[in-house]
């Protein structure tokens, strides 16, 4: 026999559920508002007490309404927040299982791909996916098995909300840890974000790739081209994160390919650097310098990265010399069309000249006494006083340090 008090509590629950069942959209929105205000942060025992041990009956109604209406944005934000109260409830593992049993993960992922839905609704969906991932390894695997990494990577790349992008980063980072079966999939998903047009997405993806290095160990060679590609970003914060990733990758097997690629960026083909885009071909009066600007930005960033990496490791510096980085840096210094290339290349060249005597000899021979002395006296400004003839001499230099010289000199030192 149940007590009078218990009977009254059950009666109230039934009245509440009947009110929900018969309510239209506006009334349900009000019910959700009240539920969120009254129950945010409650534990599973507290929710059960609130619903007379029948909280799952209300959760079932919420999830059923979600399944029917998520494509139409009917109170979607409030609905997701209400479900989040259940999923975040301490000791509420059974709520999570009940949500997953109705295909909750697939619904949340599908929400991310619906263009007509609001960013704030998608962000709420990401938060719920994070709550699912917090359940442990098998739940992370469930998200990944549901093509979650691809959906999250696409949303990160296309979202206009910085807050939503940061939430996605947190989730992808979570999926990359404690999830050995799918950690490489997460890593490749982040690589796929790099060519996107969103600088914030690029920045967050690069940061997360750095964090995941120790987890994934060796990285796929497919990483090389996208990482070198983001060096063409006009945003310095993206370039900075790319260089941080390059530093982290110097201990990996992709190092030779990355260094070779960096050196190649120092000497863009002249025909490519002087061609214009399609709009110029159609209308010669309209100059469109996107292509040359891109290769020059990459040239400057590569010159900067080479200096950073060389200073981090003498072994890397020697490899760069063998790859003809000194020749490439001199070409970049001679680029009168892009002062950033000249500046970064000059600073990096200064390091090689001061660190390796044989490099100093070759550079001095190529520049001539007067120009070399200007370089040594003021590496931060000498290129600003360079005339076109001197610049052309640099751009067409044939400095070629023998491959074994760096290693021999280092051993002797």
Question: What this model shows, in words?
Answer:
The structure is a single chain. With 413 residues, this protein is mainly alpha-helical. It has a domain at 290-412. It is 73% helix and 0% strand. The longest helix has 23 residues, at 290-312. This is ARMD1 protein. Pfam families: DUF5578 (PF17741).
Keywords:
26 helices; single chain; mainly alpha; 413 residues
The gross shape turns out to be: elongated
* SSE sequence, one letter per element: HHHHHHHHHHHHHHHHHHHHHHHHHH
Uncertain runs: 273-289
Separate helix tally: 26
Straight-line N-to-C gap: 92 Å
Structural category: mainly alpha
Tell me the strand percentage band: under 5%
Radius of gyration: 29 Å
Largest β sheet strand count, sense and barrel closure: none
- Mean pLDDT across every amino acid position: 91
What share of the residues lie within helices?
over 70%
Q: Compute the number of strand runs.
A: 0
Write the layout of secondary structure elements.
Elements (H helix, E strand, L loop, with lengths): L3 H19 L2 H15 L4 H7 L4 H15 L6 H12 L5 H9 L2 H9 L6 H15 L3 H9 L2 H11 L3 H15 L6 H11 L5 H18 L7 H7 L5 H14 L5 H11 L4 H4 L4 H5 L7 H23 L1 H9 L2 H9 L5 H17 L1 H11 L1 H9 L10 H8 L9 H8 L1
Helix pairs in contact: 2-5, 4-5, 5-8, 7-8, 7-10, 8-11, 10-11, 10-12, 11-12, 11-13, 12-13, 13-15, 15-19, 16-19, 19-20, 19-21, 19-22, 20-26, 21-22, 22-23, 23-24
């Amino acid at each position: 026999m149940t007590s009078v008090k218990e009977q009254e509590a059950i009666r109230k629950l039934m009245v509440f559920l009947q009110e929900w069942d018969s309510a239209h959209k506006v009334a349900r929105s009000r019910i959700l508002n009240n539920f969120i205000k009254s129950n945010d942060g409650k534990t599973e025992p507290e929710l059960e007490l609130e619903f007379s041990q029948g909280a799952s009956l209300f959760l079932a109604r919420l999830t059923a309404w979600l399944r029917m209406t998520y494509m139409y944005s009917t109170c979607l934000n409030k609905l997701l927040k209400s479900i989040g109260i259940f999923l975040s409830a301490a000791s509420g593992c059974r709520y999570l299982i009940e949500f997953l049993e109705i295909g909750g993960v697939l619904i949340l992922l599908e929400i991310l791909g619906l263009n007509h839905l609001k960013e704030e609704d998608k962000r709420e969906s990401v938060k719920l996916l994070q709550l699912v991932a917090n359940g442990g390894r098998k739940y992370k695997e469930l998200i990944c098995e549901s093509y979650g990494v691809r959906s999250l990577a696409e949303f990160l790349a296309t979202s206009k909300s910085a807050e939503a992008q940061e939430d996605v980063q947190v989730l992808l980072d979570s999926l990359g840890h404690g999830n050995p079966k799918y950690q490489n999939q997460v890593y490749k998903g982040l690589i796929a974000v790099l060519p996107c047009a969103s600088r914030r997405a690029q920045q967050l993806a690069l940061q997360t790739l750095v964090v995941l290095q120790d987890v994934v160990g060796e990285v796929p060679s497919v990483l090389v081209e996208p990482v070198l590609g983001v060096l063409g970003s006009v945003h310095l914060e993206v370039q900075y994160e790319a260089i941080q990733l390059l530093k982290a990758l110097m201990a990996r097997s992709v190092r030779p390919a990355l260094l070779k690629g960096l050196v190649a960026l120092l000497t863009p083909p002249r025909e490519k650097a002087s061609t214009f885009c399609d709009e110029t071909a159609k209308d010669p009066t309209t100059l469109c310098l996107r292509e040359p600007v891109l290769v020059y930005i990459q040239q400057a960033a590569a010159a900067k990265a080479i200096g950073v990496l060389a200073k981090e490791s003498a072994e890397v510096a020697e490899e760069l010399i063998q790859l003809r980085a000194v020749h490439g840096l001199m070409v970049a210094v001679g680029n009168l069309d892009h002062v950033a290339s000249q500046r970064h290349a000059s600073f990096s060249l200064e390091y090689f000249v001061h660190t390796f005597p044989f490099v100093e000899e070759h550079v001095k021979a190529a520049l001539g006494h007067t120009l070399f002395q200007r370089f040594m006296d003021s590496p931060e400004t000498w290129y600003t006083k360079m005339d076109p003839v001197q610049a052309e001499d640099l751009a067409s230099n044939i400095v070629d340090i023998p491959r074994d010289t760096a290693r021999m000199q280092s051993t002797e030192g």
